[in-house]
Amino acid sequence: MSLFTLLENWLENPQKNLTGNSLGNPLRTSYRVALSRAIKWALCSLLVFLPLPGLALDLPAPVKYALAQAGIPRSAVGIYVHETGAGQPLLAINAGVGMSPASVMKLLTTFAGLELLGPGYAWKTELYADGIVRGDALHGNLVIKGYGDPRLNLENFWLLTRRLRQTGLREITGDLVLDSSHFDLPGSDSAAFDGRPYRAYNVLPEALMVNYRTLALRLLPQPESRSVRIVVDPLLPSLDLKNSLTLTNRACDDWKDDLGTDIQSGTGLDGRVSVTFKGSYALGCGEKTLFLSVHDTARYTFDLFRQLWEQQGGVLRGSVRRSAAPGGTVPLETHQSPPLTDIVRDINKFSNNTAARQLYLTLGLGSEPLREPQVMPASFSIGYGNDRAAKSGTILSLDGTGENPDPSRATLAKSETAIRQWLASRQLVFPELILENGSGLSRNERISAGHMGKLLLAAFQSHVMPEFVSSLPIVAVDGTMKKRLSRSAVAGQAHIKTGLLEGVKTIAGYVRDKSGRRSIVVFFINHPRAESGQAAMDALLDWVYEGR
Question: What is the CATH superfamily name and number for domain 61-119+410-546?
């Protein structure tokens, strides 16, 4: 029997409790009722200041010790642990403070994507003939129009060119025309975030994005010759690679910085890109892959298309330029991306920033049918390396600065509005939330650990829960968690998304404890020594797994 029930029985029947006689004066009875209400109100007020059942008010000892060893104060962390189905969190430390989530912000973008677009949503890429097809020749230009496909990678771009070749087309007498007008974006600098414009994670979103505009450079140690072999894929004809790496026996630490990479980019279609490695590479690193983005969009797409087209017996006579697809015509071929479920797995398991930003921009248009954009005058084109110019009339901007904003084009503002409306529809009110690009590659984005936990609780009750949870890295198994906690009991028992920026380290996801219960775990560190906080995060995952 509860304390409230015992108190109520005693106050309402004191004589019965003492003598067994339930009779009493009516005046005394009303006095006892009033006294009962007053005491119950006082007890309720007192309980506000008492710990909730099951809520830990202090850090678990192993977590506290690990943070102290790392030199990270309690004030620099946000922690939230909540068992699914429970009414109150198990642990909440600074859970209401808005903090940088780094790549954990991708959980918001991908959950919103799965619910707003649906797990089977697919992007399209269209190929148009801007000219006349006679026999196996297109007398005119081939136009590629993109709608933001995050997975138009090397394999899928090869498939696109193969399907085009299977239509019977062999020769293209004109140019390759690229249409990225579906995204309406302001001008941006890929070096703005951290001064490393050639790193693949800094590739900016585009409606027509081929293979993330990257080169994969495999570094293969050759112990016999004390050298390092480099294999580039795709190996584009405009690339000059100079390899002067020396193989060393040093520890494999900051191997990317040790390479001594020097990149020189030419301009125009005749300009070449030079990548020189003049540093060292440690034998202990084994085989590694370095991803670089050293070409602009037009040059990269042109080189790769022509290479794949010629491999299949095709001929491309012209050059490359940017312009709009012709209106009112039927595509020669339409390529469909893999379903959103596959894209979300790439984003969360491997923390793909560019794919996350492509998805984020798509959210602003929802799953509505794509409308035809405003079309540029036929006399208008964008030559390679030249500024925009129109011979007559007002044009549709391809970079977000035009005078005719088109409601069918994706913008960052539309995406933010869509996400906030979606959150509101789920009664999720996050006043501290700051959105910039949805990937977490930002110094401005903010969310609290508690609200990230609430988001994960909502996802666990969602109809897209299986697709969402399975997209997260499995501890000690795959993705960004593959090499963590391999000797811990929690290995294979948790799906955890990771995040890392300078001064920021984060995790969030789901842990299945040894009793079979599932809990949401969120741990944010915003501190100059954040990178040293991994032991504390691992300790929290172990603590949750062991049943607290």
Answer: DD-peptidase/beta-lactamase superfamily (3.40.710.10)
- 3-class secondary structure per residue, 481-510: HCCCCCCCCCCCCEEEEEEEECCEEEEEEE
Q: Count of residues for the chain?
A: 548
What single-letter DSSP state applies at residue 309?
Answer: H
Structure token pair of residue 89: 């969190």
Cβ contacts of residue 386 below 8 Å, gap of 6+? Answer: none
Cβ atoms < 10 Å from Cβ of 86 = 15
Query: Are residues 123 and 145 in contact, defined by beta-carbon separation less than 8 angstroms?
Result: no
Q: What is the mean pLDDT of residues 338-365?
A: 97
Give the range among 80-94, 298-312, 359-373 with minimum mean pLDDT: 359-373
**Whole-angstrom distance, CA of residue 1 vs CA of residue 409:** 63
Number of helical (H) and strand (E) elements in the chain, helices listed first: 14, 23
Whether the bond into 234 is cis, omega within 30 of 0? yes
Q: What is the pLDDT of residues 34-74, one digit of tens each?
A: 445 544 444 433 333 333 334 556 899 999 999 999 999 99
**Nearest in space to 159 (alpha carbons), one of 131, 125, 130:** 125
pLDDT of residue 366: 78
Strand 171-172 to 315-316 pairing:
parallel
Residue 490 has pLDDT above 70, yes or no: yes
C-alpha span between 527 and 525 (Å, rounded)? 6
Please give the backbone phi and psi of residue 467, each rounded to the nearest 5 degrees, phi first: -65, -40
Domain locations in the chain? Answer: 61-119+410-546, 124-185+298-338, 215-292
Average pLDDT, the chain: 86
**CA separation for the pair 109, 427 (Å, rounded):** 17
**Measured at the alpha carbon of residue 381, what is the angle toward residues 378 and 387, in degrees to the nearest 5?**
150
* Superfamily of domain 124-185+298-338 in the CATH hierarchy: D-Ala-D-Ala carboxypeptidase C, peptidase S13 (3.50.80.20)
What are the Cα distances from residue 363, in Å, to 187, 195, 427, 437? 20, 29, 19, 11
Compute CA 23 distance to the chain's CA centroid, rounded to the nearest angstrom: 71
Return the pLDDT at 400: 38
Are 11 and 24 in contact by the 8 Å Cβ rule? The answer is no
